[in-house]
Please model this.
Amino acid sequence: MPPEIDLAKCDGCGECVEICAEDVFFGTPNFGKNGEKPVVSHPDLCWHGYCCVKVCHIPGAIWMRYPAAITVAYKEA
Model:
């Protein structure tokens, strides 16, 4: 699952776009300069690195939705 963005909290700084090594986000050529908000345009490329969440300076503006296979607890037999 890709990152989720709360557009009401996001100020369009562009830090998440800059740090993402997988280019999950897409913006205009002037991204971050005019308050343009990030768009998750390539969700299938996300490797769930969490760096976009860590770099965000607004708590709760961006978070990761992890696939169920990553979050399911396994019980040893």
